[in-house]
Amino acid sequence: MRIDIITLFPDMFDRVLSESIIGRAQKKGIIETHTHNLRDFSDNKNRIIDDKPFGGGSGMVIKAEPIYKAIEFVKKQKIRSKPKVIFLSPQGKLLSHKLAKALSKEKHLILLCGHYEGIDERVMKTIDMEVSIGDYVLTGGELPAMVLADTVARLVPGVVKEESSVELDSFVNGLLDYPHYTRPRAFRKLKVPDTLFSGNHKEIEKWRAKSSLKNTLVKRPDLLKNRKLTEVQKKYLQEIKGEKR
């Protein structure tokens, strides 16, 4: 997968894209990332890319021309697959595991980071999708672009060494993950559940499935409202609710 990021602050991405899982994936050649400074596509010597909004009002708006030029520049690179252009915007579709999974199947993503009061609306003609990471406003699209790049990249086959761990993450099956423990067995009088030491894989799987439901019920009950549960999950849920009384 290739990810191109168009931004006013390319230096913000240096460590994020070169460290941890994404960094290792780039060294393996599974992921390829490029950042592009939007000011490099300005049509004036001062590299100005914004102007006052028509109709008046506060703030500045990023011009259409430098964005078009930047996107066209990336598309002209020797890339075989057609890119999907994504604008990181609070007005976009909310980022979810389902969306990240779908985007991980793309061969090429172009992420456009907005700033100031926004971008010239005419740019939307060249945008394939708007994506938001939450119902709040940030100073720019850089942090959302980092979040999107990270959550999508880790779902690309081969990026995460143990792919089974990705399949068991929170939200993959619509529920939160079960609790995890490691050594020592007892820590400040807090003990690891005995079931995990039983050696009975069937009981361990049952504990994990039930704990996943319990976590979801306690922390994110909204996820259960419209979810269709299996008969076994319904049974576990009733047991959990009975334990709470």
Fold and architecture overview:
The protein has 245 residues and is α/β, with parallel strands linked by helices. The chain has 2 domains: 2-163, Alpha/beta knot (3-Layer(aba) Sandwich); 168-244, tRNA(m1g37)methyltransferase, domain 2 (Trp Operon Repressor, Chain A, Orthogonal Bundle), CATH 1.10.1270. Helices cover 36% and strands 17% of the residues. The chain has 9 helices and 9 strands. The chain has helices spanning 14-18, 20-28, 64-75, 97-103, 142-153, 163-167, 201-219, 222-225, 231-244; strands at 2-7, 32-37, 50-51, 61-62, 84-94, 108-113, 129-132, 186-187, 190-191. Strands 2-1-6-5-7 form a 5-stranded parallel sheet. A two-stranded antiparallel sheet has the order 3-4. The chain has a two-stranded antiparallel sheet with strand order 8-9. Helix 4 (97-103) links the parallel strand 5 and strand 6 (108-113).
